[in-house]
Design goal:
The chain is mainly alpha-helical and 190 residues long. Helix content is 62%, strand content 6%. The chain contains nine helices and two strands; from the N terminus they run H-H-H-H-E-E-H-H-H-H-H. The chain has a two-stranded antiparallel sheet. Strand 1 and strand 2 form a beta hairpin. Helix 2 packs across helix 4, helix 2 crosses helix 5 and helix 3 packs across helix 4. The chain starts with 7 loop residues before the first helix and ends in a 7-residue tail after the last helix. 20% of the residues are buried. This is DNA-binding PadR family transcriptional regulator. It holds the Pfam family PadR. InterPro entries: Tscrpt_reg_PadR_N, WH-like_DNA-bd_sf, WH_DNA-bd_sf. GO terms for molecular function: DNA binding.
């Protein structure tokens, strides 16, 4: 899959556009093979399956649906102002021919969704005492340090890849933090 390389979460999706047009069309067909859906439902389904990491815009979804309809891979049923899209026989055949790719992509979306849920739990402090924290080199009671390390890791991933200037800025921040830790300086404490 061309849009399925590098990027955030170790080999997940790249930042920016997550799929090229053909790959997105295939995933839409796979979702339509599960059940007929409106364009908005497709957007929400992809958002849910990726834990909020991938939220395609209407400007991406609707042209893809129009293309699928024009090529006979999907059909549309108008109900008021909404359009309900269904997969056609030829669309189903396309999904079946690419089943391994579809399954791998949907599994990756699911894995990213799980990682996003984990990040949300860490930000909410729910994982501060889990097994991962117990294995920390800082000891069993290092929940605050563990949480801060997770936040730092997440912040660095969200900024990557960075420009030379941004890299220098981040390095300076980390160097100041390391120096403060070594000196034992704290702000606001006696």
């Amino acid at each position: 899959m061309r849009g399925f390389k590098g990027g955030m979460f170790g080999g997940g999706f790249r930042t920016g556009r997550k799929f090229d047009a053909a790959d997105l069309q295939l995933i839409i067909l796979a979702l339509l093979s599960e059940q007929p859906r409106h364009g908005y439902e497709l957007i929400k389904t992809l958002e849910e399956r990726s834990g909020g990491f991938y939220v395609p815009s209407p400007g991406v979804i609707y042209p893809a649906l129009t293309y699928l309809e024009e090529t006979g891979l999907a059909e549309v049923e108008a109900s008021g102002t909404k359009k309900l899209y269904r997969i056609t026989e030829s669309g189903q055949k396309r999904v079946e021919e690419n089943q391994a790719l579809v399954e791998a992509t949907l599994a990756k979306l699911s894995a990213i969704g799980e990682k996003m849920a984990h990040v949300r739990r860490v930000f909410g402090g729910e994982d501060a005492g889990d097994d991962e924290g117990r294995d920390s080199p800082f000891g069993r009671d290092a929940g605050d340090v563990h949480l801060a390390r997770q936040l730092l890791r997440s912040a660095l991933r969200s900024k990557y890849p960075w420009s030379k200037a941004e890299g220098a800025r981040i390095a300076a921040i980390l160097e100041r933090a390391a120096a403060d830790i070594i000196r034992g300086e704290t702000k606001g404490e006696d």
